Amino acid sequence: MTQPRRTAIRLDPAELAQPRHAERASPVDLAGHLPPETEVWQDPEPPVPPEPPLPRLGSLGWGVLGVLGLGTVQLAWWLVDRLGQGVGLAWLWLPVLALVVIGAGGRLFKEWRQLRRLKRLARWRAEAPDGKANYLPALAKACGLADTEGYARWQSQCEPHHSPAEQQALFSQLVLGHADNLARQQIVRWSSEAAVLVAISPLAIVDMLLVLWRSLRMLDAIADCYGVSLGYWSRITLLRQILRHAIYIGAAEAVTEVGLDWLGAELTARLSTRVAQGLGAGLLCARLGIQAMSLCRPLSFSPNERPRLAQIRLDLLQHLKRQLGNLFSKDQAS
Amino acid sequence: MFDRRPLQALQHQLSTLAERSLDRHVRLAVTGLSRSGKTAFITALVHQLEQAGLQQARLPLWQVCASGRLLGARRVPQQHHHIPSFGYEAGLAALSGEPPAWPAPTRGLSELRLELRYHSRHPLWRHLGGDTSRLFVEIVDYPGEWLLDLPLLQQSYAQWSQQVRKQLAAPELAALAAPWLQLGSALNGTSRYDEALAARLAQAYTDYLHAAKAQLGRQLIQPGRFVLPGEYAGAPVLQFTPWLWPAPEGAPGRESLYAMFEQRFEHYKRHLVAGFYHDHFASFDRQVVLVDCLQPLQQGPAAWDDLAQTLGLLLQSFQYGQSNWWRRLFAPRIDRLLFAASKADHVTPDQHGALQALLESLTQGGRAHARFEGIQVASQVLASVRAGQFHTLTHQGKPLTVIEGTGLDGTPVALFPGDLPIGRPDAAYWQAPIQPLALRPRPWDQTGPMAHLRLDQALEFLLGDKLR
Q: Where is the region Disordered (chain A) (predicted)?
């Protein structure tokens, strides 16, 4: 079951002609000087996770395929019919149709490739805890982080004695730390915009659309920071949440409007209610951003690195204060 | 003239109190049995800390340093003027010498004080301290042997003598103790006190303890101050031995040698042993216990069992709850305890897991008790200063990591020392134990901090929470 214990092996150090301070560069230099039965060990190529199998079609998939097939047949029938009749308009339809097919096909192909990459990332992430770290360079390349300064630092700081867990911790901190900061800035930016816009807009329906729009933009911006785009399912999960937020914000807007009218509140009361409502919308947006961060990040957060809503709230308030300050100083100047 | 000393003492106490109450002050104690690498550990730790603020710092897994919040550290004059200073300069000179050598071991208590400056993330500190916050770290070095004296506090002179008699049942120890036993063979319970004889007996007993340590690798030495007397070398309080000859019937005569030995034993207990716990141990906040697991694994089963037993005794010092009197007497307050297996560069990296498992099995009882006391405990495998380099080669078709370095005598070495046992070493292991390997430090080119192994994680555990 277990391997037998290995006992000591003494090599001749003279033959292992050893340049000083060459731990990282050494293996290549050693090659000519080794005892007969030893040679420099080459690390095997990092394992490329196997291609994910083709997705199996559920009943929904078959249904969609069937409808699509029927539609195509119908379309072809219609075209042939028209062309046979020699009506000139049908000739105009042809390029439009080709454009649509090419566009949709390209889009689908792109989606499919993205989905495959995301699956591979997910597989890497799932593998991460059980102790192989030589997939990290491939991961960095897949996320477009291989040219960053952080990656270079990671490579220089990693030493042979670091266990896979330590290498991952370093990777998470040095390589992904910068991306984390960028993502956090994006969250603050988009959620503060959402806050301001919601505070200004008077209509519930406008509020809802605003939150939808800003949140979607934020998701893409965050995904960009990590060099990935969101997967289908994670996008759906987040979208559902966005919708829920939008409904909440719309309802809150409607209730405050009606409530304030009933109570006959003064202007200042109306203003402060609006500001509070805007802030609430901004915070919901920020919370969503944090969730998007942990979905997009190729390695999961360590407890120390996990972004905290409290911290982002502070940043958000500061950002808003600065923006409002700018607004007022402009007013005074004009 | 007006005497300012009391006032200064008061001021000093107040400032200490203020720093303590603001949590800006950590007393970090480092201990371990002889040759476990205490001096090298402290020298390397201070060296790394002094370089931690610079660009080329090598502490990536220490959060505060990795995030760039640490501004730096410097040595500052210590506050306890009666404690000898730790010989940092001498240690560094040895490590960076030509050829590099390990620092000379220290033989008693010593101390060193550092001031760390950092950007705090805590809103309160940011408010109070402006842009930078400070943390004072006092590193205290003391021999682990002193902790072995703790059980003496509960023993009488007669009981202790009885215990030593039992130990001497082992023939190899009895052989070493023969000169001492021979010297006192004519003694009995009524022998009169003779200063010269007492000194000779004590010297013979001390020689026996040294021999047991050096020749048999025994670590369980009582009383600990005999081999590491610190400032008490040659003092009468260390001139006694256990009494293995006919004991006096009834109460010993006042002039007898037995009575004098008994008195000195009691004095030793009360002033040296209890005094150490009262004056020093009770003030430690964090404790590092360094253990050299490799040497006994090379020496044999007797040395291994001795290490296990010794560590068990040593760790009793962290079981406050077991005896209430102890808590009442010293009120210790250590809240983090780190067990570190030193010299991790003398085994290959794939064996570090096994080394950690060995360390944990050795310290099992102590860790459980310490955790029960509310002390946070961690075990780590580290090397303060790198002596060996790792190379991975193909040997008979399989990857094999060898350690390459320079032996203490200057000869180059390239060795795979063998696998460590998994858990307690069994008979099969002792058939082919790991190869002894003693390397000297790698030469230091002075362009950056010295190479180490996992000191950053030790720092994270010991100081990480104080530098938030």
A: 1-53
Measured between CA atoms, the residue of chain A closest to residue B59 is A157
Q: Which domain holds residue B242?
A: 155-277
Pair (B121, B194) in one structural domain: no
Q: What is the pLDDT of residues A251-280, one digit of tens each?
A: 777 777 777 777 776 777 777 888 888 888
From residue B368, alpha-carbon distances to A164, B64, B93, B424 in Å are 28, 30, 40, 18
User: B379: which 2 tokens?
Assistant: 């075990």
In this complex, do A163 and B413 lie within 8 Å of one another by their Cβ atoms?
no
Chain A contact present for B300, CB below 8 A: no
Query: Can you read off the two tokens belonging to residue B142?
Result: 């003391």
pTM more than 0.90: no
Residue of A nearest to B62 (CA): A170
C-alpha–C-alpha distance, residues B7 and B156, integer Å: 42
Cα separation, A157 vs A47, in Å, equals: 23
Q: What is the ipTM of this complex?
A: 0.71
- Does residue B434 form part of some domain? no
- Orientation angle between helical segments A176-200 and A267-296, nearest 10 degrees: 150
Q: Which of B114, B113, B107 is nearest to B85 (CA)?
A: B113
How many Å is the maximal CA-CA distance in chain B? 85
For residues B362 and A11, the answer to whether their CB atoms sit within 8 Å is no
pLDDT tens figures, A104-113: 777 677 767 7
Q: B211-214, long-range: CB within 8 Å, 24+ apart, which pairs?
A: B211/B176, B212/B173, B212/B176, B213/B34
DSSP states of A158-171: --TT--HHHHHHHH
Count of structural domains, chain B: 2
Select from B277, B295, B322 the last residue of a domain.
B277
Record: contact B435-A21, CB cut-off 8 A: no
